[in-house]
Each structure stands twice: as structure tokens, then as C-alpha cells.
Amino acid sequence: MFEEHRAHRAQKQYDEDRVAWESHVAEYRSLVDLASTFSGDTTSQLILEQGETVFFTVEDAELVEERRGPGSWHGRSQGVSIPIGSIGGRSVRYRVGASKGHFVQGEEQPTVIDRGTLYITSSRVVFQGGKQTRQCDLGKLVAVHHDPSGGILTMSVSNRQTPMVIRCGSSLSEALKFRLDLAIAHHNRTMPAFVDALRSDLHALEADPPHPPSTAVPPVQSAPAVQPLSPAVPLHPAPAMSPMPASSPGLPDSSVLPDSPVLPDSSVLPPGNPATTRPAMASAPPQVDSSQQDTGPAVAAAAPVPTTPSGWYPDPWGLASLRWWDGATWSGDVSGPGAR
């Protein structure tokens, strides 16, 4: 039961990983096709230079800059406070003396100063908002930092002391970074190397699909094989004796036997008397465990024990001279002196 649940869970996880992998591969293939064929679009919302094309447009982008928060006064003031009267029941005082408190400015925090449209072209990055406009030439770009968690793009340029920070949201984070890299590759004339790098990543991704779960179930350890019981020790047959001649289980002479002879209890017989044991029939072959039938040669059956033929034999209990043996057990028929 537990093995089936674990196999079902592993198969479900594999199906989810397979779908995610196929989606990633399809997305990467579309990026390779886009990089190989796309050369930019045109727009009427921005005045483009000659030969300039637009690679990406983001609406409702945010321009972020560092702004200080409100400050506060710290320290205590010293001097003398003198009451000079009251107005409306409230006391009016005049303070004389120097104040030694100082003003502490607030800490700088990233602050959204405007919202507008971001354009990434083949030669620059332009933010056009309702209050602010920023432009970053790709030829003067020094460094680019991308924060995928918030879709924040930080660009440092050589003609500005502070970097240009644009926030577009996590949903457009990857697309924003790819289109900027594509525009930089077009501007720097490095498109062949850019496309080759994408194809190399695609081949590595295609060569590493999720592995299906193993269907092999670990073997369950079985209980140790039960050794076959030793065959029962055969009972000793009655001692071989020469039977008295008789044609039937009757008396060899004219004496009359009692109708219901009473045999003594075998528990009171003298110990060691060989006649107290019944002759054994042919013993059955020993049972062989089915799990060991093919692990060795066949076990030969025990040879049958010969039986003593029926006839008159000396009475083993000593109650009479002779007692009738029917071939399997002693009967109650006796004969000779001592018969009762």
C-alpha cells in the first residue's frame, strides 16, 4: 500500500517537472527565434533618430530615485523661562538663553517620483513621464543591475552621478532584461555571439530533461524457509516368529475361547517389552518445503517397512500361550494354556 502511494506521488512530481521543462524549452526556442529575426519596431510616441528602432515598450513604469525622509531635532535646550502674563487663561513665558539642540536629517529611501512609459531602443533607454524625463544612451552605459524579484533595472551611465532606476514589476522582469540585452547586442554589433550563447543554453536545457521515476519496487524480505520436520521414527514391528499352521483366525485345537477377552492396559506392561509396540505400516515420504523443490536434487522416499504376516504367535502379554496377529495389530483371540 505504501509502495503504491510513493510510486503515485513520484509519478505526479515527474509529470509536473516534465510540463515545466517543456514550457521552459519552448520559451527558450522562441527567444532564439526572436533574437535571430527581430530587428526592432517603430513608434509614433517617441521621436526616433535615423536608423533607430524600438525593441521594447513598457506602460506604467515607475521612475525611482533616492529621497531623504523628514528630519528631527535632537538634544536639549538651556536657558531661563520668565512668565510675562496670560492670554485667555493660558500663561505666556519668555525664554532667555542659548539652545544647544541640533537637527538630524532623515535617511535616504527609494521613492517613486513619477510614472510613465519606458522605451528601449537600439541606441538608448528613455523614460517619459508626466513630470520627469530621463534618457540613458547605450554608448555611455557603464553597468546594468537587474533585480528579478521586483523587476527593477538600475543603469549607471558615465554622464550622470546617480544611476537611473526603473521599476516595471516582477511579471515583466525577465522580458525587460532580455530586450535590454538584445538592444545592447544590436548596438555593439555582437548579435552572432549573442545568438550562439542562446543556442548553447537551449541545447544544454534540451539535453537535461527530468528523469522518469523508477518503477522497480524493492523486494520484500520473506520469512526464512521452514525446514521440513524429520520423519517420525517407525515403530518396531513384532519380532519375526514362525507362525503356527492355521487356515483361519480360529483356534488350532478344539478348545473354546471366551467371547470377550479383556486385554491389559499397555501402561502396566513391564518396561522394555518389545511386544508393547505395534508394528508400523509403511511410512509416508517426508514432506519437502515447496520453496526448496528447485534448489537441489529430489529427495528419495523412505523405503517401506515390511509387515509381519497374520498368524498365531506367542502372546506378548503372557496371558496365554498364543495370540492372533491380523497383520496390523494384535487381536483378542488367544489359545493355549492360560486362555481365559
If you had to describe this structure to a student in words, what would you say it looks like?
- The protein has 340 residues and is of the alpha+beta class.
- The two termini are 74 Å apart.
- α1 packs antiparallel against α3 (191-206).
- The protein has helices spanning 2-37, 173-188, 191-206, and strands at residues 54-68, 72-74, 80-87, 90-96, 102-104, 108-121, 124-129, 133-137, 141-147, 152-157, 164-167, 311-314, 322-325, 330-335.
- It has 2 domains: 2-66 and 105-206, PH-domain like; 243-280 and 307-340, no CATH class.
- Mean pLDDT is 75; it is low at 216-286 and 290-301.
- The protein is elongated, with a radius of gyration of 56 Å.
- The chain is 20% helix and 27% strand.
Helices and strands in order, then pairings?
Blueprint lengths: L1 H36 L16 E15 L3 E3 L5 E8 L2 E7 L5 E3 L3 E14 L2 E6 L3 E5 L3 E7 L4 E6 L6 E4 L5 H16 L2 H16 L104 E4 L7 E4 L4 E6 L5
Antiparallel strand pairs: 1-6, 1-11, 2-5, 3-4, 6-7, 7-8, 9-10, 10-11, 12-13, 13-14
* Poorly predicted sequence stretches spanning 5 or more consecutive residues: 216-286, 290-301
Secondary-structure element string: HEEEEEEEEEEEHHEEE
Q: Based on DSSP secondary structure assignment, what is the total number of beta strands?
A: 14
The class by helix and strand makeup works out as alpha+beta
**What is the 3D form?**
elongated
**Tally of individual helices:** 3
Which CATH C-level class of the largest domain is it? Mainly Beta
Radius of gyration: 56 Å
Cα-to-Cα separation, first versus last residue: 74 Å
- Strand arrangement in the largest pleated sheet: 8-7-6-1-11-10-9
Main sheet: strands, sense, barrel: 7 strands, antiparallel
* Assigned CATH superfamily of the largest domain: Pleckstrin-homology domain (PH domain)/Phosphotyrosine-binding domain (PTB)
